[in-house]
Amino acid sequence: MAKEKPKKALQELLQRPGNQLCADCSAPDPEWASHTLGVFICLNCSGIHRNIPQVSKVKSVRLDSWDDAQVEFMAANGNNVAKAKYESKIPPFYYKPTFSDCQLLRDQWIRAKYERKEFIYTEKQEPYSAGYREGLLWKRGRDNGQFLSRKFVLSEREGALKYFNKNDAKEPKAVMKIEHLNATFQPAKIGNPHGLQITYLKDNSTRNIFVYHEDGKETVDWFNAIRAARFHYLQVAFPGASDVDLVPKLSRNYLKEGYMEKTGPKQTEGFKKRWFTMDDRRLMYFKDPLDAFARGEVFIGSTENSYKVLQGLPPSTQGNHWQYGITIVTPDRKFLFACETESDQLEWIAAFQKVISRPMLPQEYAVEAHFKHKP
Fold first, then answer.
1. Which end of the chain is more exposed for a tag (fewer CB within 10 A), N or C?
2. How far apart are CA 106 and CA 117, in angstroms?
């Protein structure tokens, strides 16, 4: 009976405001806790806490035995108290991961909070807050697919991220303007748990580069340094905008990626399997997921501009191996795609519908006009 009393008290603590979501990734119904930090966490985050035993000791709320002193410590702290302490000085641009983000982002977020205490002592934020960063990253070669060490330099003052093929090279191999820069973690696609995909516009076409660093902290610091540079650029570009308006624009994950079949504009050629990436209103297709350049890009506008997505293909369509068709109607033509499974088809239609149902912004009309005049 004595064992049941702490369990009952812990269950009551879980109902307090703030404790109903994981303190680190906001997953619902946490069933684990760090009894040295005083936070309730989910199973996944408890695994990360176990890797920093000098800071955090974890127990199951339901399965492990608790003594009165540990329960009292949890009662005196809890998720809201810990947040006020360990997250008190987070820069607005710093990416706070959720349960849907990759393991590396969640791991480094937990270490930054509790192990390095980066959001208590602002001087520890220098690696991504200084406005300048340089270092070596492993970059995938465009033609041979090999990862080679390359020097990268991010300069807010110059408004660019550059990389050099040799450490002592005077001229960069590429200059990527902060204005058009994006970074997103792609561990599965790149085949490395620290894999980061960086995209930028070159002659108004999307260019991909794939990088990683052996040290997870380095990779995440680069990611947040890029977000910081984008944040400061947008503050100047949109002086009246609030942080709440700007933060969603700092980096973006793709709405959807995966294989579909496509046919050409005359719709008489055979269907070919291609890797598709939906990046906001740009639908890009590649022969291989790790290609540097897209084979083609399609602009996806909005309903009021005569764009729509239809389930299925026109009755006369031939040559598709996959049965689950999608038709995208634009003011100029129809694009025909085919998916391998019905669930894939429905996910792609939902992604297209999400974009098409959103009214176009003034700057998006300029992008649409460029697509219409592409050769």
1. C
2. 15
Distance separating alpha carbons of residues 253 and 184, to the nearest angstrom: 6
pLDDT, one tens digit per residue, over 184-230 is 999 999 999 999 999 998 887 889 999 999 999 999 999 999 999 99
What pLDDT band is residue 373 in, cutting at 50, 70 and 90? low
Q: How confident is the model at residue 374 (pLDDT cuts 50, 70, 90)?
A: low
Residue 362 tokens read as: 């003034």
Burial code of 4-38, b = ≥16 C-beta within 10 A, e = fewer? eebbebbeebbeeeebebbbbbbbeebbbbbbbbb
Give me 349's structure tokens: 């239609």
Give the largest CA-CA distance in the chain: 78
| Banded pLDDT at 12 (limits 50, 70, 90) | very high
Q: What amino acid is encoded at 321 in this protein? A: H
Tokens of 147: 């990862």
Residues 138 and 117: their CA atoms lie apart, in Å, by 28
